[in-house]
Amino acid sequence: MAQAEYVQESLAGLDPAVGGVDPALPLYATTFVVVDLETTGGAPDGGGITEIGAVKVRGGEQLGVLATLVNPGQPIPPFITVLTGITQAMLLPAPPIEQVLPSFLEFLADAVLVAHNAPYDVGFLKAACAKHGYRWPNPRVLDTAALARRVLTRDEVPNRKLGTLAAYFRTATQPTHRALDDAKATVDVLHGLIGRLGGHRVDTVGDAIEFARAVTPTQRRKRHLADGLPKVPGVYIFRAADDRPLYVGTSGDVATRVRSYFTAGEKRARISEMLAAAERVEAVECAHSLEAEVRELRLIAAHAPPYNRRSKYPERMVWLKLTDGPYPRLSIVREISPTDTAYLGPFTSRRAAELAAAGFHDAVPLRQCTHRLSLRTVTPACALAELGRCPAPCEHKITPEEYDERAAAPFRTATASDPQPVVDALLARIEALSAGQRYEEAAVVRSRLAAVLRATVRMQRLAALTGIVELAAARPAARGGWELALVRHGRLAGAGVSPPGVHPRPTLTTIRATAETVPGGHGPVPSATAEESERILSWLERPETRLVEMSSGWASPAGGAGRFRDLLAKAESGASHQLSTERS
């Protein structure tokens, strides 16, 4: 028989994907199913359960009991019989686990599962469900052993064993290593622990689950910062005592996202440092996720919060442009001017621009020297000319017209429309190097090819969007109605949501009337950062988004860089594989 696939995982916390109970539900109103299992003592493999005991309680009142022996389909080790008193003869007439699971899962529905050393019991139950084809409901889980470690000190109890805790809380039923007795004892232990939680300001089931986990003192002390935040799309800003922004983030549910910073799932050292300095959290409500993402980018760019790593300093972007003059060369610059006609970018770093420039130098005979050449005066040639890597325009061995055709024109064509000549030259160079078994050099050229394609594909996509004076788009909202966005020159100028059941046109008219005025400009990102325009592009390209109105057509060159996306993916994949091989 095939073994069930099972991997021990951490217990369910406050993940939105977890089913069942709302984490904000007060403890007194929460339904708990307290479970205990007896097993044959092996690893969770879909079997091995010999007894299930479960008690359902709410508000201190017992609502139901489920108890049954289970035939594990395998012999019971003698030491288990000695420990529990369960014999092989007792289990022969008992039902197998696949017959017990439906009743147990129904009993567990819409409740929080409680167990002492819960990973053990949950592991067996999940493995049994996986083996016999039942869907594990993924309930929220509260571990009384973990909770006791957080609530009780060593002076109160020497250990957190169920028997020790039962004696401490003077439970009505003492644990006997039988499932139902141990479950009933765990119920009383649970109630005793809940009685101690009030002093820790733990009032909800979500708070109790997180309190049982390894939350730092700083997280526990600052968790009140998440109180009162809206459960809507928006941006949240952690601020210091002097009101400086420390960290800016975005979420479709601000309250839930901010609350997650104070849970055991948050383990980043820099975030822990940020929480220690934070004094309040400010929320900026947004119409929908796109507006929230754009506002986040703008706030990070404006304030450069110390604990944000990405999207800071957009002004540090650089460009690769073709200089003026009879023998132009490639130059890395901070800005492009309206007089510049051949350029590529923006690049996120100088290194990325240099890599793309190296790709063009491998493909076409652009000069690499920085001298200002004259049509009248000859300048001594460099080593590249002697190696045949440069046509030596410095010595006037090539006319300006021929140089432009062979060297400059392919760059202009690649950036504005078709990079085919550059791609063909780089592929031919890679093939030649590979044929000569110079694989490391071929990998370097492949990285340069990826840099050229990445930059040309990106710029042409951006230019296609930012050339549109105004674009209106709509996307179905999760709760009905439409999410609306008004984009001008690649910048989000207005956003809103139309009410469910109402035609979105009046809302769009209002958005247009109050939208930001966005003047055009030069280049592929005239009015916004490249990252903002790319976020807008991602939103517009979703299958469910509808284009409502456009001031002009939206198109990319038919023979443009976009058709090389598959080649770019292969080049990047090869570079990633090479990097992982070198690191290993």
From TrEMBL:
One of its GO terms (biological process) is DNA replication. The keyword Zinc does not apply. Residues 231-309 form the GIY-YIG domain. The keyword Disulfide bond does not apply. It comes from Micromonospora profundi. NCBIfam families: dnaq (TIGR00573), PRK07883.1-2 (NF005904), PRK07883.1-3 (NF005905), PRK07883.1-5 (NF005907). GO terms for molecular function: DNA binding; DNA-directed DNA polymerase activity; exonuclease activity. InterPro entries: DnaQ, GIY-YIG_endonuc, GIY-YIG_endonuc_sf, GIY-YIG_UvrC_Cho, Ribonucl_H, RNaseH-like_sf, RNaseH_sf, UvrABC_protein_C. It comes from the Bacteria. Pfam families: GIY-YIG (PF01541), RNase_T (PF00929). GO terms for cellular component: excinuclease repair complex. Keywords: Exonuclease, Hydrolase, Nuclease. Signal peptide: none annotated. SUPFAM superfamilies: GIY-YIG endonuclease, Ribonuclease H-like. This is DEDD exonuclease domain-containing protein.
